[in-house]
Amino acid sequence: MTDADPTHDVVVWGATGVAGRFTAEYLTERYDPAELSLAVGGRNRGKLDDLVADLTRRSDAWNDVPVVVGDATDPESLRDIARNTRVMCTTVGPYTRLGTPLVEACVEAGTDYCDLTGEVNWVRETVDRFHEAAVESGARIVHSCGFDSVPADLGTLLVQSFARESYGAPCETVRIYLDGGSGSVSGGTLASFGELFEAAATDPLARETLRNPYSLAPRDERSGVDPGEQRRPRRDALRGEWTAPSPMAPVNERVVRRSNALLGYPWGREFRCTEVVPTGTGLRGAATASLVAGGLGAFTAAMSVGPLRSALRRYAFPDPGEGPTREEAEAGSFLIRLLGRGTGADGPFTVEAEFGTDRDPGYGATARMLGESAACLARGDVDSPFDGGVLTPASGIGLPLAERLREVGFTASVDEAGPTVGE
C-alpha cells in the first residue's frame, strides 16, 4: 500500500447500481464498523447519500457510511480514492468500457481490487497491460468474484486440494455441472455480454481471446491439450446423462485454466476442465440437450451479427441498472456440482464437490461472494503465493473464501465420490 494507514478498508464502487447496492447492504449487515471500515462510491453524490440513509436505517450498527465521489472516466479522481483504500470492490460495468482506469489507479497505488467481470476480452487486456506492474506494486487485482467465476474456480480448487491431500495426485479432469437454480439476469450483466460480442466483432484480440481456451494464461503459455468449451449435446461419461453447452463456460473454464497456470501447474499441464448443463437421461435428456444447445447457438449467432445485436440490445435487453427486487434476490438459488477424475498410487479415483446457496446467483449470492472476497483481501485472510498481480479467486484468495462463504450459508463441500458410470 502507498498509504500505510488507509482511510477505508473497502470502497464499494458503483454502490448505487443494483449489484453495488446489494453488496453494500450485505457488508453492512454482515460486519460492523469496528470489523470493516466501509465506504460507498460513485459519481452521483445525491444517490449515494440516499443509499447511506437507507443503509443506516436498516442497520443498528452503522450510524454513518462515508461517501467517496469520483468518475469511472476520470483517472485522477480514481487515483485519489485508491490511494486511501485497502480494497476497491467494483460493480461498475461494462468493464470493457468503464473498468480500465480503476484497475490502473489501483495498480499505481498498490491497492487491492475485486470485481464481477465476465468479460474475458477485458481480463486478457488487464493481464497483458497490468500483471507485471501489479506484481511490482503489490496490488492484487482479482477478477470474476461473483457467479462468474467463484463457484467454478473455487470449486475446482476444493476438488484438487482434496485429491492431492487424499490420493497424492491431482485430478486430470474436472467437470463442472450447473445442476440447478433459479434467478434473474440484470441489465448490467446483459450490457457486459453485449460488450463482449461488440468487442469480438471489431477487435481481433478479442476474437482470438474467445477462440483460444488458454487465452488468459500467462504470456508464452497460451496453448495446451484442452480443446475448450463443449458446443454440442453430448452424453456425459461420468454421470451417464446428456449435457448441453453452458453459457458461462467461455468465462469460467478460462479462469480455471489461469488459476492452474498461475499456481505453477499443480494440477498438471495436461489438466482439462469442462463446464456443462446436465439435461437428463434417455431420449428426453437428448432432446433437451439439443434444444438448449440450439437455443444458445441461435442467440450467439444473432449476437454476432451487427444489426441483430443492436436490435437485441436496444429492444430486448433490460436497461443497465435494472435488476431483481430484494425478495426476488433472496428467493433464488443455485447448485453446482463438480466431478474430478485422477489416478493415484492405488489406481483411479473420483472426487465430488458441491457449491451453492439459496439466493439468486446473479445478485443475492453474488453480493456475498464479492463482499467476502473484498473482506478476505482487506483483512489479509488469503491463502495465496502472490502479493500482487492480475489474479483469479482461486489463485489470489483461495480456500479462506470458501470458509467465509460457508459461514454465511453456502454449501462448499468436497469428498470422495461413489462409483460413477465411467468406472
Task: Explain this structure.
The protein has helices spanning 18-30, 45-58, 75-83, 95-98, 100-109, 120-137, 150-167, 187-202, 204-211, 249-262, 282-303, 306-316, 326-331, 364-379, 393-396, 399-407; strands spanning 8-13, 38-42, 67-69, 85-90, 112-114, 140-142, 171-182, 234-235, 242-245, 272-280, 333-344, 347-357, 389-391, 411-416. 52% of the residues are buried. A seven-stranded parallel β-sheet has the order 3-2-1-4-5-6-13, with helices on both faces. Helix 3 (75-83) crosses helix 5 (100-109), helix 6 (120-137) crosses helix 9 and helix 14 packs across helix 16. The model has no long low-confidence stretch (mean pLDDT 92). It has two domains: 8-147 and 364-398, 3-Layer(aba) Sandwich (Rossmann fold), CATH 3.40.50.720; 150-361 and 408-416. The N and C termini lie far apart (51 Å). The protein has 423 residues and is α/β, with parallel strands linked by helices. The chain is 45% helix and 20% strand.
Order of helices and strands: EHEHEHEHHEHEHEHHEEHEHHHEEHEHHE
- Number-wise, the strands total 14
Domains counted in the coordinates: how many?
2
**Rg (CA only):** 21 Å
Helix content: 40-55%
**Number of alpha- plus pi-helical segments:** 16
Overall spatial form:
globular
Low-confidence stretches: none
Averaging pLDDT over every residue, what do you get?
A: 92
Structural class: alpha/beta
Query: Which sheet architecture does the biggest sheet show?
Result: 7 strands, parallel
Strand line-up across the major sheet = 3-2-1-4-5-6-13
Strand content: 15-25%
Distance between the termini: 51 Å
Biased composition (Basic and acidic residues): 218-239
Organism: Halorubrum distributum JCM 13916
Protein name: Saccharopine dehydrogenase
Domain Saccharopine dehydrogenase NADP binding: 10-142
